[in-house]
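Hi Y.,

Following your request, here is the sequence exactly as I used it, all 71 residues.
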Amino acid sequence: MPEIGKTLFVLGLILAVIGLVLWKGGQFGIPLGRLPGDIHVEKGNFSFYFPIVTCVVISLVATLVMWLLKR
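Below is the corresponding structure, written out as tokens. Let me know if you'd prefer a different format.
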């Protein structure tokens, strides 16, 4: 049972750091959510936004972090 607690604690810290980067990232010149390739459609009073490139970048970073933690 202690292993589950350690794992949850580490995952919580990782999520907190990712949240901080996303929250404060715009102030440091990291435009997550507004990268080239993100889909944004506006027609009249309808707006659709899907940050596909941002999702890919976050996925790559998360994969790299998990790979480094696994080693």
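The first strand starts at residue 39 and ends at 43.

Thanks again,
Q.
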